Amino acid sequence: MSYLKQITSPTLLINEDICRNNLKKMADKAKRHGMKLVPHFKTAQSHEIGKWAKDYGITEITVSSIKMAEYFCGQGWDNIHIAFPFNPLEAEKLNALAKNQRLSVQLINVAVAQELNETLENPVGFFIEIDAGYGRTGVEVSDFGLMEAILRTAKKRDVLQFKGFYLHAGHTYYEPDKARIYAQTRAALSMLKNKYRTEYPELVTRTGDTPGCAVIDNFGDIDEMGPGNFVFYDMMQVNLGSCKVEDVAVALAVPVVDIKKDRKEILVHGGGVHLAKDVLIEPDGGKNFGEVVWLHENDWEIPLQRSFLKSISQEHGIIKASDDLLARVKVGDVLGILPIHSCMTADCMGRYLSLKREWIDHAEQAY
């Protein structure tokens, strides 16, 4: 039976071949640059997709919460890194998980380092997160006093083990000069490595944004990369130049419930609760909540004439339809929508249906 016969309501489809190709290309790039790839699994959040990743030599992953770390515990990962300034209220939970799984966290202040030092009985690694221009979170790259205060606090016991420095250059999402940003990233991490490696000879440096990791070809002496969105990509990444439309590995299948040919609009069951509300702006100032693709038995097809989701509410979506789409579609058909932000769409939907007719797990389905 075709996977299309299984769809009666909004369903997130995954193309395993595209996803695997994305994993392989990034793993090959990391290897080419002498780096370790530690992908951020906040995008996929799946045991099954984790198995695919292992086929390309990936042995460690990054997550964005302790809940997500718990989901991935016991799956054979060498280490799971929680890439979010650690919440001290979850110190006991971290300690319990660390009994059977190697974990690492991100520290940006002394207070949390002290709390973990007082609470942990099982060893946990830590990175100091560095801010070198993004401005969201992290220790300022020149604030050696704070870095050294965190390191001194960790040294009081042997439960907090320093791994190195983590820098997320997230401004590559909105600043066009990625080469300049990565020049800053390379310089910041190289400076810190040179300053601290005498005392900590095993320390590593890691960077992790998809737009940069996808297009930059000079990583200097950075040891590890940890992008996440590349596993699926999405229309935002296409817009940023990180990938091609053909590299987007997920599509939201949406049933057609009405057609207004006079307005060139198609009403579908698929809205904000399925896609979230990330948006791109069209040249005419209109909004784009996702690109329409034709769904076929073993793949999907990018139409020659563009159609896109021009507005959404909670459950409704309205497609601005091309003449070709209007001529071919009928009520009861199922169309595909390539999402603007695949991480949020996957989180909303909670599981995937592969084009091979298999249901693929997602962390949100487990809670």
TrEMBL record:
Keywords: Lyase. One of its GO terms (biological process) is D-serine catabolic process. The keyword Zinc does not apply. GO terms for molecular function: D-serine ammonia-lyase activity; D-threonine aldolase activity. Residues 249-356 form the D-serine dehydratase-like domain. It comes from the Bacteria. This is D-threonine aldolase. SUPFAM superfamilies: PLP-binding barrel (SSF51419). Its EC number is 4.1.2.42. The keyword Lyase applies. It comes from Cecembia lonarensis (strain CCUG 58316 / KCTC 22772 / LW9). The lineage of its organism: Bacteria, Pseudomonadati, Bacteroidota, Cytophagia, Cytophagales. Belongs to the DSD1 family. PANTHER family: D-SERINE DEHYDRATASE, ZGC:162816-RELATED.
